[in-house]
Amino acid sequence: MITIGRLADYAGVTVKAIRHYHKRGLLPEPGRDSSGYRRYTAEDAVDLVKIRTLAQAGVPLARVKDLLDADPDALTAAIEEIDRDLRDRIAQLQHVRDQLVQLRGGDGLFVSPEVAGYLDDLRRLGVSERQIHLERDGWILMQTASPEDAALWIAEKRELMTDPDFRALYLEHDAAYDWPPSDPRLPALADRTRDWFARHRSRSETRPVRNPDIARLAVQTQPGASSPAWDRLTRLMEG
Amino acid sequence: MITIGRLADYAGVTVKAIRHYHKRGLLPEPGRDSSGYRRYTAEDAVDLVKIRTLAQAGVPLARVKDLLDADPDALTAAIEEIDRDLRDRIAQLQHVRDQLVQLRGGDGLFVSPEVAGYLDDLRRLGVSERQIHLERDGWILMQTASPEDAALWIAEKRELMTDPDFRALYLEHDAAYDWPPSDPRLPALADRTRDWFARHRSRSETRPVRNPDIARLAVQTQPGASSPAWDRLTRLMEG
DNA sequence: TCTTGACCTTGCCCCAGGGTCAAGGTTCGA
DNA sequence: TCGAACCTTGACCCTGGGGCAAGGTCAAGA
After folding, report:
1. pLDDT tens digits along B200-214
2. CA-CA distance, A219 to A214, in Å (whole number)?
3. What is the pTM of this model?
4. Which of A221, B11, B45, B229 could cross-link B179 (Cys pair, CB 3.0–4.6 Å)?
5. First and final CA of chain B: distance in angstroms?
6. Which of A198, A205, A191, A202 is nearest to A233 (CA)?
7. Is the CB of B35 under 7 A from strand C?
8. Residue of B72, B94, B221 with shortest CB distance to A41
């Protein structure tokens, strides 16, 4: 006749868990002694070990209850299923872990290594933190919407960045963000940008875009995604 | 400006989860449209992906909240810790799985393969199911209290069972359970049992018992663990 | 005998959402 | 323009216990 605490120690379970099993009807409430304490027998201990074994494997308590007095065949089948489930859960955790290991610190936590490398390239180039932030958020969305497309796009963009003309244009666009919309440099920048795109249109426009929604969303609704000068640039290039 | 359902799809999260993040203050409540629907921007999507990434790794939401605007160093440290935790959880699940794989069906679920084999031996020997049940429950308790002792004991007991004299005694004790306490065969059985133990005392009594409590518990309080005939036997052997 | 610390009791709130509900909104095809 | 299908809203209950509160109990020592 042992108390709940001792029973818990024997079975390697908390007192709280035992009381919970009583509430759920998994373990019968034992008799009480004169002071109201629960008093357990060895039979309870045996039942408890069974419950613990199944519960530790992640079997829902409702199912444990059924399994406790199931016939051996059903039990064997159930165990196989439980094991399969366990295997899946391990694989999933391993996957999460791989992600975590691969993506270390800083930007790397939320974007792929390629994008992180690209952002670092921009930083070395002297691009503003505002712009880098904008790029990063854009890529997070791209990767979420379509990792494959994002992988293709980032590769292409990094290749583009090896072109000194493109780099110069990029930096100038970055700087233009804060210019007044009447700045005389804007029309010339618009012209050069148009020229560059005309020369490179063939490459960048031919691939089908699979998730245009998310791309539009990224561009349109980001706060700080535009400025008066940029708006004027857009009009100049369109007009 | 997208709805909650679309945002959920983008981020690979349920609508329910997003509302939960709002309640927990992880994700700011966005503006509502004229019909009261929440309307999200790309910024929300970015935040949500961050939250999801951390939450999937099992980080408590309270901690995610802090991590979201932590400095890079603290974040790197946190990630390392999260990864360690993940590793532990995988190891623990793997352990449970090993147990489950090893202990297939039937009695095997709750006792070691050795004990299961021993119980099968008893069954082949023609021991009553009542007695086998008694033995099984006893072993479950032993294994719970002290797996090492249990392993030693079961090995010894199986060896004992190779002795035809012991087997005969065991079977007769099993049969004696239902005898009337006045049965004339009882004194003779008690004598033979005492003799046998006298001859084998050297081996079975020399090892220290590490968890006598649980053993006594097992023997004393199991319902059906004794009968009038067995009680008489005990008295005969003691006297 | 009184106290101290460990143990027990019930009860309530918490996590991280999932399931389900009723009520109303939106969108699309007929 | 109507109805059907689908969406969104908040509210409430469920999991498997952990943590905490407030009180009763027990065994041992001063």
Report:
1. 765 544 444 444 444
2. 9
3. 0.71
4. B229
5. 91
6. A191
7. yes
8. B221
